[in-house]
Amino acid sequence: MLKTRQISNPQILAQDQPAADQPQIKAKGKAKGKAAQTASAQAPMSLKEQMAEKRKRDRVRKEFTTFATTAGCFGLVVGVLLGLVGGIKIAAAGTVGILVLAIACKYPRLAMWGFLIYVPFGGTITYAIGNSPLLQLAKDGLYIPALMGVFQHCKRERYPS
Questions:
Q1: Maximum Cα interatomic distance, the chain, rounded to a whole number of Å
Q2: Cα–Cα distance measured from residue 152 to residue 161, given in angstroms and rounded to the nearest whole number
Q3: Tens-of-pLDDT digits for all 161 residues of the chain?
Q4: Which of 14, 86, 118, 125 could form a disulfide with 90 if both were Cys (CB 3.0 to 4.6 A apart)?
Q5: Pick from 29, 18, 110: which is nearest to 64 by CA?
Q6: Alpha-carbon distances, residue 19 vs 9, 13, 58, 128 (angstroms)
Q7: Domain regions of the chain by residue span
């Protein structure tokens, strides 16, 4: 059997519980920060808003898969034709090139980021695959369609050019 000890000293009991007239001070930890403040600042979404968000995500996902499938099929057809004429390397380059051009036209900001990531490694990739002048110009396949897409977006939104 466990024996419990009773504390009869009221001062010890008073230390554990704050007095009614003393203000309680909450300690802020490092874990509580901006994340806790932003979570409490945002109101929870209603069921209608959640369903609208889900429909929007599904629509965007379906649009991307339809576009990527169409561009991939077109790239494969062109790749097969190039493979019959020039060989497997030309076919692979043509297929990937068409896919990259299509995605760069559709998503120009993503293409700009891809271009910025590719540029430092472009020379290494070009020399590893083979020193071809066409591979030197491969980065333009990302940059030019992306630049045209950003320009069209700015023109459509009437941003200063």
A1: 98
A2: 10
A3: 555 555 555 555 555 555 555 555 555 555 555 555 555 567 788 888 889 999 999 999 999 999 989 999 999 999 999 999 988 888 888 898 888 888 888 888 888 888 888 878 777 777 777 777 766 677 777 788 888 888 888 888 888 86
A4: 86
A5: 110
A6: 16, 11, 56, 75
A7: 53-106, 108-161
